[in-house]
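Forum > Structural Biology > Help requests

Title: Can anyone predict the 3D structure of Nucleobase-ascorbate transporter 2?

Hi all, first post here. I have the sequence for Nucleobase-ascorbate transporter 2 but no way to get a structure on my laptop. I'd be grateful if someone could post the structure tokens.
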Amino acid sequence: MAAPKPEEISFPPMDQLQGLEYCIDSNPSWGEAIALGFQHYILALGTAVMIPSFLVPLMGGTDGDKVRVVQTLLFVEGINTLLQTLFGTRLPTVIGGSYAFMVPIISIIHDTSLMSIEDNHVRFLNTMRAVQGALIVASSIQIILGYSQMWAICSRFFSPLGMVPVIALVGFGLFDRGFPVVGRCVEIGIPMLILFIAFSQYLKNFLTKQLPILERFALLISITVIWAYAHLLTASGAYKHRPELTQLNCRTDKANLISSAPWIKIPYPLQWGAPTFDAGHAFGMMAAVLVSLIESTGAYKAASRLASATPPPAHVLSRGIGWQGIGILLNGLFGTLSGSTVSVENVGLLGSTRVGSRRVIQISAGFMIFFSILGKFGALFASIPFTIFAAVYCVLFGLVASVGLSFLQFTNMNSMRNLFIVGVALFLGLSVPEYFREYTAKALHGPAHTRGGWFNDFLNTIFFSSPTVALLVAVFLDNTLDYKDSARDRGMPWWVKFRTFKGDSRNEEFYTLPFNLNRFFPPS
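Reply #1:
Sure, ran it for you. Structure tokens for Nucleobase-ascorbate transporter 2 below:
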């Protein structure tokens, strides 16, 4: 038997991911685009409901307060998504709430001056205003780093090798939101996971009028089936005598969102009153803004690949971060109890549906704004048990992580230097945040526990984030270990042409601003 040729055992690196049905600037039919946009809206509900559901009761808020915060968060998410897809990176990314902001927000909630307020409603309002003030101040970090192009300068130290652990851990780092949550209600979670994989992968060639309907709408179909099944279990009394925690995770009537939601309510800035400002709170929040910046950088790189676009040039990435800072400012003004970051699950859905169209994401932003105003209808969809979302996350977070690993094709993985950097950055990126999580669960405070609360919040927030730890380790090692002689091994000859807007002719097609705005903001 003849020895295999080199091209038979290896695959040439590809600038753009192949096999997508629609790329960033090609659009499906209007009917299909609207259905896909609605699917992205449903997926974004998971995080939009989970964050307020956890934080509002800690602040002394009622179910009515929780519904208002969920509606406000969705409304601002819709605005931020439109801004980002029109004027930011222009990538098809949903800008959603971020778990990175949980550490500083919980620290504000436990502030002694706020905890001493006896009236729950007054405590809720005062805490909300303190969080708003901290978000407004902290948003300046991304606004300054983005619009001054300082983040573009920083990104010159990134290479394909250094980005692999960062993008991979944008997905893998969220492992605790996957199966550990599915396990809280396996009778709903496992069928959802199996059904979603079956529809999106095994039955993807099932066509209706030339449309792979099961692959394209796997999320909508499987959520509808499992939600109906969960409702049947609830109505039949299957959870009547089960523990409270099981009921909370499995029942479809435990969220109390529909009964508490108004029919129509338009969120508006400063609806909770004038924000209050505290330097300690703001400094802790700045760490979350930095974490959100790093996580979004990884997610933008993954989204560009899943939209079959070239990697965003440095100034486009920086422009997107600037608009994300504006988004966090809006979060603070409206009072959403969270900052903004790229929704990782929605990036994964681009790959699952093989539709990377920008228009689909803009339609989903329209749904967010529409249903956040029509409270009762929005609350109906928002009452889907979180276990159902967690089952989908198991697939979509993994898909985003694998996009990060795909950047290894541009590097030399027969180099001991590269193996060392990728391995150490990936391991520490998972291990350090896990240590911080375990320590916090046992001691009820983070490993950083000095008299300076702002200092504790800053360190604990930074090291709770897997992509942030991975970026610190990978970029440091990549730029200090034999970096002069290893440009080719690191993938720099491929990467360098995407650093500038004019470095590759395709950049103009993907990243040019609409309405001929490039005349006023010429690309660098």
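Residues 30-409 form one domain. The chain has one domain: 30-409.
Shout if anything looks off.
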